[in-house]
Each structure stands twice: as C-alpha cells, then as structure tokens.
C-alpha cells in the first residue's frame, strides 16, 4: 500500500526523503574495534599487485556499531593524503565529527589524468574500488553516504571517478576544489545516474589551473564554464543557473537545478575572483601560504561537508 496516496498532506513533508537510500553495501566492518579513534592512522593495501597507501581518521567517539558516512579526500600533485588532511583540516570535529575521513595516496604523488602521472585511470579507479571494499570490511560504513573531495590534480581525478559508472557509482556526491580536468571533454563519460551531485570551487586568479582553461602542467584543461556546462548537460540541469554575488561582487555562487528527486541544487560552483590555486579557507592554511595568499571568503571544508549531507546514493 502506498502510504503517500492516503496521506497527501504528509507527502509534502516527506518530499525531502523521497529518495530511498542504497542498502546494499557490505557492513562486515561494523563491530570491529580500532585502537586509533580520533587519530590519523596510516595503512598499506595491495591493489593490482602493488603495495599502496592511505590514511584514515575515525571520529573521536567512533561507535563500531553505528554506520558512518565516508569521505575520501584526494591530494594534489607532488603530495600525499596526510598533507591534504593538514591543509583542509577535514578530520577536525568542526567539519566531520560524524564522518570517517579517508585519504588515499596517488602513485608517486599524483593521480591519473595529466601527462606527468605515472598511473593509468584504470589503475587508480581500481585502487579506489579496492579501498572501498577494504574500508567496508574494516570500518562501519553507510554505503549510501560515500563522498569524495579533492584538490587540484586530486580534484581533477574526481571527474574521472564521476564519469565511471561502476566505481564512481559508489559515491553519492563530489566536491573538487581548483580541479584540473585534463580528461574532459570525455565522450565516453557515463555517470552511474542523474544527477551526479557536484560542488566545484575555483579561483578566478588561479595561475596553475586557469579558470579560462588552456595549457596546464599535464595537458589541456577545459575552462571551468565549459566543464560546468558538460555536467549541467549530463545532469539535465536547467540552462540558466541562479547566480548570487557577494563580497562586493568578488564571490560568485552558481546553483543549477537538475534532473530527478535529488536534482535541486545538485550542481553548484563557487568562484572567488581574486583567489589563486588554493584550498578555499577563511583561516590561513598551507596551500594559501604556498601560493603566497591569505585567507579567503569561503571555507571549502565547511561547504563541501554541508553539500554532502544533502545527498544519498539512491537504492
Ligand atoms: C616513483 O618514484 C621513485 C622515486 O623517485 C622512482 O624510483 C620510481 O621509478 C617512480 N615510479 C614510477 C612508476 O615512475
Ligand atoms: C570503471 O572503472 C573500472 C576500473 O578501471 C573498470 O573495470 C570499469 O569497466 C569501469 N566502468 C565503466 C562503466 O567504465
Ligand atoms: C599551516 C597552517 O597555517 N595551517 C592552518 C590552516 O588553517 C587552520 C584553521 O585555522 C589552522 O589551524 C592551521 O594551523
């Protein structure tokens, strides 16, 4: 019996829960106790015959019997997960008290896509598949709430992930910052569903991954507007996004309305005109120091986690 057919008034308030979350994930990691709650822990794991590494941060008060959302954080080039963690502070309870954070390491400091990467897209997608399988067998994970964020080369790799239906399909939403989308436009891009929710951050003054696109360090990059257009099309979003400008016209927030039950504001973009190649943060962080910049108007760590909280992987 369809409850909503009988209770039309109630159906309005139920509208936000219209999506039935995915229940199929492995939960064999539930119940396992770990001696590193609240402390970042470094691990090795074999993938395609190679020993690879990742680090993980469980909440301070991790309850081995409660299913947690899992957020994967992808570092930029010539970097490692531990650095991305320190730069974004995503493991801090202020951002992720109720989430498990996992930081995978690329091979030799980078992710597949650019010409300088030593790994192939297939190899890195398999690595993420293997991490997810392993994580579910060790930690208590809600498979309907698996998300990915990343910076620069790591942000660019999220695009390859979102375009892959099998591995990317395991994620409920993506939030890249300063992403270098070397693999776009991708004629073969086949996302698992519509919408694949995406929140992108980019500096209008990014000198490494230019907002206008063109030649980057590892190949040709699309302009951010073109890239948003590709995802607006894939997610069947309305042509004209809503634009809100703030901070005297220096900060621009675009919101697209897209296809499906979770389509509302499923594609979003923050552009900060005077921001360079950094992880957007209102407090000075490493990537801002490295770029010779100061704090900016928005916190990508906060906005990304809030964005993730709105989406589940549907059944
Ligand atoms: C990765 O870097 C190490 C040390 O710099 C080097 O010996 C190795 O050949 C590199 N691996 C690949 C696949 O390029
Ligand atoms: C996604 O990536 C995996 C790992 O490389 C690959 O086996 C699979 O065929 C890809 N799926 C699609 C739909 O392209
Ligand atoms: C290196 C550095 O200054 N990191 C800072 C990044 O931002 C957070 C939030 O204010 C600081 O706690 C870190 O020390």
UniProtKB/TrEMBL annotation:
What are the entry keywords? Carbohydrate metabolism, Hydrolase, Polysaccharide degradation, Secreted, Signal, Xylan degradation
Chief location category: secreted
What's the Enzyme Commission number for this chain?
3.1.1.73
Quote the subcellular location field of this record: Secreted
Q: Does the keyword Ribonucleoprotein apply?
A: no
Q: Which residues form the signal peptide?
A: 1-18
Write the protein's name: feruloyl esterase
Q: What is the lineage of its organism?
A: Eukaryota, Fungi, Dikarya, Basidiomycota, Agaricomycotina
């Amino acid at each position: 019996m369809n409850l909503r057919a009988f209770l039309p008034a109630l159906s309005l308030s139920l509208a936000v829960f219209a999506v039935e979350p995915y229940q199929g994930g492995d939960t064999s990691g539930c119940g396992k106790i770990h001696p590193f709650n609240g402390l970042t822990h470094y691990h090795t794991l074999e993938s395609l015959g190679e020993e690879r590494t990742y680090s993980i941060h469980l909440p301070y008060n991790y309850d081995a019997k409660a299913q947690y959302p899992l957020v994967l954080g992808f570092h930029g080039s010539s970097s490692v997960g531990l650095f991305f963690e320190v730069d974004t502070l995503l493991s801090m309870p202020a951002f992720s008290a109720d989430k498990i954070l996992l930081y995978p390491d690329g091979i030799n400091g980078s992710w597949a896509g650019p010409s300088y990467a030593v790994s192939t897209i297939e190899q890195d997608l398999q690595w993420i598949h293997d991490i997810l399988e392993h994580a579910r067998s060790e930690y208590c994970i809600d498979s309907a709430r698996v998300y990915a964020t990343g910076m620069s080369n790591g942000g660019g790799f999220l695009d390859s992930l979102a375009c892959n239906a099998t591995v990317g399909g395991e994620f409920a939403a993506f939030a890249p910052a300063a992403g270098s989308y070397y693999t776009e436009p991708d004629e073969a891009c086949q996302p698992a569903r519509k919408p694949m929710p995406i929140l992108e951050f980019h500096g209008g003054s990014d000198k490494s991954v230019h907002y206008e696109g063109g030649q980057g360090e590892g190949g040709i990059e699309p302009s951010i507007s073109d890239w948003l257009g590709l995802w607006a099309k894939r997610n069947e979003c309305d042509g004209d996004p809503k634009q809100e400008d703030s901070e005297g016209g220096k900060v621009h927030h675009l919101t697209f309305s897209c296809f499906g039950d979770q389509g509302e504001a499923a594609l979003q973009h923050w552009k900060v005109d005077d921001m360079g190649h950094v992880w957007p943060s209102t407090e000075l962080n490493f990537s801002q120091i490295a770029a010779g910049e100061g704090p900016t108007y928005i916190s990508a760590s906060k906005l990304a986690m809030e964005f993730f909280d709105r989406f589940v992987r549907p059944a």
